[in-house]
Amino acid sequence: MLNRRGVLAAGGIAAGVLGVPQLLAPAEGHEDSTHDVHPAAFQESKTFTGTKPEIVPWTRPMPVPPVLKPLVSTPRQEIYQLTIDKTTAEILPGLQSPVLGYGGQFVGPTIRAKTGRKTLIMFQNRLDEPANVHLHGGHVAPEHDGHPRDLIEPGRTRLYLYPNTQQGATLWYHDHSHGTEAAHTYLGLHGAYVVEDDSERGLNLPTGAYDVPILLRDIQFDDSGNIVVFDDPAKRTVVLANGVPQPYFEVAARKYRFRLVNSANQRVFHLRLAGTPFTRIGSDGGLLASTTEVEEMVLSSAERSDIVIDFAKYPIGTRIVLTDSVAGEILRFDVVRRASDSSRVPAVLRPLPAMPYSTVDREVDLFYVFKPNDRPDGVINGKVFDMDRVDFTIKRGATETWLIKSSDPAGVKHNFHMHLVQFRVLERNGGAPLPSDLGLKDTIPITAGETVKVQATFTGHTGRYVYHCHFLEHSWIGMMAQMEIVP
């Protein structure tokens, strides 16, 4: 049974494993679902004893997800086809774990788009239950946003159109199907989506083989090597880099651009690089105004950060380890060769757009409501998500200021994600934004007791979009709301 103590201790959903019936009921206000939350292939998992699986570090290379090739490519658009599959993956050495995957891959293929050129992707659902796709951080029409209502039924296909009118940025795509978003994304339905902007060419940042997406996440296994879903997040002790635990990545002694994506359901990474500061150049919505040096990189679930690491200062044979404050060592960079390098990291990158005058102030409060049966609902402003209810009506073109907070007991963690647009963080706790708040954002962490003031301009599309906690088990139990952009 999901109880108050467990939820507060974990900062999230903290009881049950695959197939526990009481965890499968939708929260009040959710529509009833005739399909199970988890695919049948995952119903036989045994309870994990709590012992971390034996993993010998640095024995496998970190894979770079392949770039998806278009079926058709023209100066105006690229057309792709991608399946949604039930498959297996060797995550733990020598074991094949049942997973889900876009294109049958765990992690999904990287899609590289270009600003000003449309992307059309036909997704075919080969699962035995509905699924869908959300381009996280994308500025897209509502019918292509992966709204929880818009499902791809088993055996059916759906075309998604991404106009790519925004500046270059590191985005990612993942499942957002109603009631199953947490399980589907956790089991593997996620991948990187990179918008490349020709205007960045003049900056001469690392490109090609030296521009590498790294999707970081955590995971839990049972005693048979199957993935455990909906247990205490603290038991997700295995951290993966592009789907592999504690891999190494061979690099040349030159500069690399790494696009970090926190694809975990509800982990906040605190990353350090062997005493060397990170050179941070980008955030959720693209390049920062200027390069920043940070000792620790903080990424909550769904946040992204582009960094540059210059390995030229290290002798051949040097090994540099990326660590997390809780998980410890998660990825090792091995300097193995020399390489020419004409790239650079300019101090000034791209000026951020001026912030228009804000005409509307709103407040968003994320917290739990505990009912007599001790099973919490996740709520925003006291309401469980209802797809038929519009919580905020917003005029297209309006600039608004939102105050994000949580009324939960001190220490409980959430985060906040807004669809359709990026925003700017104006204040955190009445003071200056944190270094991790800089740039154009669509996701920010929020701990109970904090307040974060953000500003967004709702240009472009009209229609209904959601905003929610991106700890996906929290949105699953109702911590999501809906805004409608009107002419």
Architecture overview:
The protein has 487 residues and is mainly beta. Among the domains are: 142 residues, Sandwich (Immunoglobulin-like), CATH 2.60.40; 136 residues, Cupredoxins -  blue copper proteins (Immunoglobulin-like), CATH 2.60.40. Helix content is 4%, strand content 40%. The protein is built from three helices and 31 strands. The strands form six sheets. It has a seven-stranded mixed β-sheet with strand order 12-11-10-14-19-16-17, with no helix packed on it. Strands 1, 2, 3, 5 and 7 form a five-stranded mixed β-sheet that branches. Strands 13-21-20-15-18 form a five-stranded mixed β-sheet, with no helix packed on it. Strand 20 and strand 21 form a beta hairpin. The radius of gyration is 21 Å and the shape is globular. The N terminus is likely disordered.
In short:
With 487 residues, the chain is mostly beta strands. The protein has three helices and 31 strands.
CATH superfamily of the domain at 57-198: Cupredoxins -  blue copper proteins
Helix amount: under 10%
Average the pLDDT over all residues and give the rounded result: 90
**Number of DSSP strands?**
31
Terminal Cα span: 46 Å
What spatial form do the alpha-carbon principal axes imply?
A: globular
The largest β sheet comes out as: 7 strands, mixed
Strand content: 35-45%
CATH topology of the domain at 57-198: Immunoglobulin-like
Low-confidence stretches: 1-48
CATH class of the domain at 57-198: Mainly Beta
Strand order of the largest sheet: 12-11-10-14-19-16-17
In CATH, the architecture of the domain at 57-198 is: Sandwich
| Derived structural class | mainly beta
Count of helical stretches: 3
Radius of gyration over all CA atoms, rounded:
21 Å
